[in-house]
Amino acid sequence: MTTSQQPADHQDDAELAEFGYKPELKRTLGNFHTFAAGISYISILTGTFQLFYFGYGSGGPAYWWSWPMVFVGQFMVALCFAELAARYPVAGSVYNWSKKIGNPHLGWLAGWMMLIASIVSIAAVALAYQLTLPQISDVFQIVGDGTGKYDVATNAVVLATVLILFTTLVNAFGVKLMANINTAGVFIELIATVVLIVLFAVHITRGPQVVMETNGTGAGYGAGYLGAFLVASLASAYVMYGFDTAASLGEESLDPTRNAPRAIIRAIVASFVLGGLILLLALMSVSSLQGDQLSTDGLQYVVLDVLGSTAGKAMLWCVLIAVTVCALAVHTAAVRLAFAMARDNNLPASSRLAKCHPRFQTPVLPTVIIGILALAILVVNIRQPQIFTVVTSIGIIMIYLAYLGVTAPMLVARLRGRWQPAGDGKFSLGRWGLLVNIVAVLWGLGMTINLIWPRASVYNATAPFHWYLQWGAVLFVGVIMGGGFAYYWFIQRHRTGVLAEHRLDSEPATGPLAAPAAD
After folding, report:
1. Residue among 388, 457, 465 at smallest CA distance from 154
2. Backbone phi and psi for residue 508, each to the nearest 5 degrees, phi listed first
3. CATH no. for residue 64?
4. How many independent structural domains does the chain possess?
5. Hey, which residues does 29 pair with through a beta bridge?
């Protein structure tokens, strides 16, 4: 399906010519829409509320220091992505970036990992309904009373299913509907975040020195508190990713080479500042740091404890809105990635997956398939008591690996003098590029190892205890990466090439970073 472009869009479509694509997606998203897409994927309230219980339970109040640590590392990645977004604002950002600055094989693997990670992330985000809705009312604990061994996990799947069905329908009906809902949700989330920060601030009962307390959590680790801290850092690592969504919507945005880089930087900085304040002030304002509720009920407990039932539940409804738009943004990004890979004939049934609906001007089939796959992940884990940390951590690992599939070849291109940032006053790291890129790669490698390490405390802390559960992340990621690439190498790579219905009439421009043909 081809959408006729207005003359004003010609410059926006110029970068597509380098990939050999003709413009097909409708350009309707403005500056705030692009920013909203990035920040809703990161989602301050979703991330901080979903895994606070794990961070606090694993590392005590001092786990807060993982927040600035993760920010610094991810900010280096975001700066690299902003420079890429200024040069190549195309759908399926991670996939196309890796393909362009690396090679088609690496691009496929990065895109494949990002696609599976996005599907897992949809399931992980949707599970946050369980952490909030039953706190609002017992009515939402549909399965059992919450005390049974599998009550919480099973009920989480039921509630998450409702959310995934919603995100599937909205994404199927076009980007404009998605953007309007997303923008409204982000607006509410930002206001609620500021209000929550103010309310926590006026109820402070202790000083900021609280973040120096470890609650003895390092006792069970050979490395002392460092071991506990590295485990707890999963809670912060879960929040600050997905900023590339602003670039992935580049083909549906106006002036994307300027708006996307700004949106990426603003989204991660805003999330760091606001999220960091929420976590700090929550620790300073909760009535007591004793007991188990902080490590079981998390920030939801803090909100009800500090604000009381009425105001607290009102704030939890805002958290629910944030979770909803976060899941919507993750689903949207996954669809754009699937469309981008299918357009290059890099997925099974690519011609169907890359087809845009003539009315809604959005890829409907991948929207539905991604929703179904996210539901399948939930069903597989329906009787997994640790469903929240297992699904979430696997999603984060694969995101970090996909990001490495971009930052590593970008570093190689810099070292070989092949990287050329966008000109014309667009975002560029200049002389800082090499240092930033090196830190981004080292950070990605370090955190990937930290997250995938087969710790029982993350992957198998409760019965039944089995070696394959503790090693579940290594096994799952290994199968997805190895099996996926084997399929590509022996089958799909021989078919790779821009589909005729998506190809420009003229040959794409060539340059120092033009992607070589597949073997």
Report:
1. 388
2. -65, 150
3. 1.20.1740.10
4. 1
5. 253
